[in-house]
Amino acid sequence: THKDISSLNNCKHVFFFRAVTSWSYGKEDKNVYYELFIKKKDFHLCLGNANLPLCCPFSQFFVEILKAKGTLKQNVREAIFSSIKDIHSANQSLLVHLENGYFGKGLVQFCSHLHHYTVYVDNIFNAKKVLVVQLKKNKAFRRFKKLQEARPEFSSHKLEDLLQLPIERIHQYKHFLQDLTANTSPDDPEFEQLSKAFHEVNKVFQRIEDNTRRHENHLQLCRVQKLLKGKRTKILTAGRWYIREGWLNKVPQKGDEAKPRMFFLFSDMLLQAKRCSPLDLTNGEKFVGQHAYPLQDCSVEKVFGHTRSKGGLLSLTFPKAKVLLMSNNQEDLNDWHQNLSAAIRKLQPKATVIHQREDGWGGAAMQQRQEEAHGECCSRARTLTCTASHLSCAAGPEIVHVSVLRLKP
């Protein structure tokens, strides 16, 4: 309604400045086009409890001044702020196009600068680490950071929050373009440009998601490595993914009492560990790795009826071992079975599918080629036989043995 549009126009938290909505009512299709106005320097992106402008000037107040003052060395400055100046410039150019009504053109041009976002998102976790180090050992930088964060332009945001701003903006761009493209008619002159812009922004968005998952997985691997006593068991391995951990009772094969053990499940192995002795003052909270079972060529089976309907048994068969794991919690047992099955399934080699070629190698053409090959082989065999007979006659009383290989087509 006009009332709703008016309230949206007065809302400073609105990221969308134009959208197209379509719907059907009965047999009548209605298209409603509405625009949400934007003002120069009043285009906001919600971050936390405050708004920051699209072209947030923290590049100017941090990067440029730090470069002029020489507070940070160039390599350190680039490690923290990466390509933020290029990102700031791309956003300024986009804002100018949008204010002048060049919607599709502005987005297409903006997408040509998305590689600056790619560089930035690949460096963001390293930037935070370098920032922490500099805040610890560089007193001048600590003081400078505190003064700049007090500027009214930053709405009391810390530098750590400002560094995250380009990442948050890509999330906003992605959702905005997704909604806008989905609600724009394919006949619209700007539909192709909007679709291309959404595709390009979504690739950067997926890169952010992938980087975040890899970073979180790395943190989990580091955490498990620190939980283990010593360095005999190596957890940090390229391509390894952390899945889960928990206590399970390992049932011995000789009928002894089941013993609780901590198990860590990764994408390529199941690690069994036990708690260190409480008398060990330095490692009392850690674990000792006992067995690392590779999941390659492993099979898992759920066994029921051994715990009176409370939980059950998991039977794991490895090339050189067989392990029985028991849990009294049915839900926990089901989760372990599901996680183990999924991890094993991903390690299984995929079946190779051979597709019949259609470029002269199928049907009658294939049969003709086989007949030609068969004829050629027969001809070669006859030639070799004749040659053998000729050599035998020329040798006189001596016998010449010649092995003739009959080739199959």
UniProtKB/TrEMBL annotation:
Superkingdom in the source lineage: Eukaryota
GO biological process, one term: positive regulation of cell migration
Gene Ontology MF annotations: guanyl-nucleotide exchange factor activity
DH domain boundaries: 28-211
Domain PH: residue ranges: 241-345
A GO cellular-component term linked to this record: plasma membrane
InterPro entries (UniProt xref): ARHGEF39, DBL_dom_sf, DH_dom, PH-like_dom_sf, PH_domain
Protein name: Rho guanine nucleotide exchange factor (GEF) 39
